[in-house]
């Protein structure tokens, strides 16, 4: 999932055209059979309960859920008979258009995937109901200034959405985010991980992530990753007769000489000295 900052960067490059805006209260028997979506749209559920199935995955359609649909999605939508859903929707077209190095770059929606898709949970639902109410009212009016106001409201909607996502991240369990990256390092230590990519995975700035990781785990992120790699290297040195170059590659180092220097710095012995001292000979 993209971070709020990444979504903002993508949205900033898009130009939107509102195709249709509406508000609907469903009947208890309402259902839309499985269909292939042809247009970009989003739906805000404001009342009731239901189930939306997107590409085979079931999602709860209930107040505070915001759904983004895109062409090609297989979607089925149905309401709960006892609590029929009520929702606002907005269908839109967009193109990617931005200036870079004094040149205008334009891409169609087919070339530029929309940064939001599927279901999102909102923290401040009443605020988004207000935006949708305003967009619906303006949709029923005509005029160039009204059209401009609709575009401004849609931009305010995107901004409010990003602020909502960011607030949820800040309010979330940051310790869980740290533990998530810790588990990720355990499973992917052999890959070229960077501090920036780990911070992004946690949804935190690099500086905040580094401070919080050391507070929770006791090591800096890079020190923790280095110790993981060296622990695995020690196992390979003791239990196998792999060449040093192969061991270095298997724990995430492309340069065996750099690996050897790091190993000695962390362990206190060179890899060859460590293997000679601790290698377990095979049972005859």
From TrEMBL:
The keyword Transcription applies. Pfam families: AraC_binding, HTH_18. InterPro entries: AraC-bd (IPR003313), Homeodomain-like_sf (IPR009057), HTH-like (IPR037923), HTH_AraC (IPR018060), HTH_AraC-typ_CS (IPR018062), RmlC-like_jellyroll (IPR014710), Tscrpt_reg_AraC-type_HTH (IPR020449). Gene3D superfamilies: Homeodomain-like, Jelly Rolls. GO terms for molecular function: DNA-binding transcription factor activity; sequence-specific DNA binding. Residues 179-277 form the HTH araC/xylS-type domain. SMART domains: HTH_ARAC. Keywords: DNA-binding, Transcription, Transcription regulation. This is Helix-turn-helix domain-containing protein.
């Amino acid at each position: 999932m993209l971070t709020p900052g990444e979504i903002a960067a993508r949205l900033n490059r898009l130009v939107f055209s509102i195709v249709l805006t509406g508000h609907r209260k469903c009947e208890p028997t309402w259902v839309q059979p499985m269909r292939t979506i042809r247009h970009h749209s989003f739906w805000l559920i404001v009342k009731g309960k239901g189930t939306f199935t997107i590409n085979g995955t079931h999602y709860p359609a209930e107040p505070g859920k915001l759904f983004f649909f895109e062409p090609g999605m297989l979607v089925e939508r149905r309401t709960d008979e006892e609590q029929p859903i009520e929702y606002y929707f907005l269908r839109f077209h967009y193109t990617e258009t931005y200036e870079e190095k004094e040149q205008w770059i334009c891409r169609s929606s087919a070339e530029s995937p929309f940064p939001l898709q599927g279901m999102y949970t909102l923290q401040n639902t009443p605020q988004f109901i207000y935006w949708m109410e305003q967009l619906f009212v303006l949709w029923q009016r005509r005029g160039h200034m009204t059209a401009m106001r609709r575009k401004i409201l849609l931009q305010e909607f995107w901004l409010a959405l990003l602020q909502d996502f960011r607030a949820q991240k800040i309010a979330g369990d940051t310790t869980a985010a740290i533990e998530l990256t810790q588990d990720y390092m355990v499973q992917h230590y052999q890959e070229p991980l960077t501090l920036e990519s780990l911070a992004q995975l946690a949804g935190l700035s690099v500086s905040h992530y580094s401070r919080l990781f050391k507070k929770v785990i006791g090591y800096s992120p890079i020190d923790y990753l280095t110790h993981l790699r060296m622990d695995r290297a020690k196992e390979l040195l003791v239990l196998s007769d792999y060449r040093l170059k192969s061991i270095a590659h298997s724990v995430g180092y492309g340069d065996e000489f750099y690996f050897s220097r790091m190993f000695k710095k962390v362990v206190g012995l060179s890899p060859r000295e460590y293997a000679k001292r601790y290698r377990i000979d095979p049972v005859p």
